C-alpha cells in the first residue's frame, strides 16, 4: 500500500468514526430545527412536546437523503462485488418476514436471559433499566410518529449508515466481505449505546450484513430490520398481552427457520461463487 493509499484509508476510517459519533448530535439538532419549522407553519408547541417522535421523523428523512447521496458518491469509483444471491420480490419478502421474526426471537431470548441474571450483576441491571426507560420514551404521543421513527424511516437511515456506508468503507479497505459484515455489525451494536441492547443489535447486524453482502441490495436487510422493530411496536389495540404473546411465540418458532433459511442461502451462494471468475 502506497502512502497515498494509506492516507485515503485513514481518511475513510476518520469519516466512518465521524459519521457514527456525530449521528446522535446531528439527529437531535435536525429534530429541534424541524420542530421549529413545524411550529412556524402552525403546529402547536403542545402537540410537538407531546409528539417528539415527529421531529425525529423529519430528521431521519433528511439523514436518509444525505446518506443516500453520500453512499452514491462513495460507490462512484468503487467496483462492488457481484451479488451471489438473487431473491424474487414475493418469495424474498416472505423470507425476510420469517428472518425478521427469527432475529426477534433471538433478541427475546437474550433479553429474558439478561432479565434473569441482572440482579446479580449491578452493571447489567443498570443497563437493563436504562434500556427499558429508553424504549418507553418512544411510546409517547401519536402512534404514527413512533411507527415511522422506530419501524420505517429509522431503520432506513441505519441501513444506509451501517450496511451502506460503513460496510463499503470496511470492505474497500480490507478487501474482505467477512470483515465488513463483522465490523459493521459490531459498530452497529456499540452505536446503540446500551449494553443490553448492543448485544442483540450486534447479532442482528451480523444477519443484516450477511444479507446485504450476498444480495448487494439494501432493501432486504431493511425489510428484516422493519419486521424486527415493528414486532416490538405493535399498534394500539393490537399491543395487549395476548397479541404480544402471539408475536413472541411466532418469533421463537422462527428461530430455527432463521438458521435454515440462512443455511440454504449460503448453500446457494457457494454454488454461484464457483461460477464467478
Protein model, in words:
Helix 1 runs antiparallel to helix 6. The longest helix has 38 residues. With 277 residues, the protein is an all-alpha fold. It contains ten helices and no strands. The radius of gyration is 20 Å and the shape is globular.
Short description:
With 277 residues, the chain is mainly alpha-helical. The chain is built from 10 helices and no strands.
The overall pLDDT average reads 91
Helix content: over 70%
Count of helical stretches: 10
The major beta sheet can be summarized as:
none
**For the CA atoms, what is the radius of gyration?**
20 Å
Summarize the SSE layout with pairings.
Elements: H1 3-40, H2 45-50, H3 52-74, H4 89-117, H5 122-137, H6 143-174, H7 177-191, H8 195-215, H9 219-230, H10 241-275
Descriptors for this entry?
277 residues; mainly alpha; 10 helices; 82% helix; globular
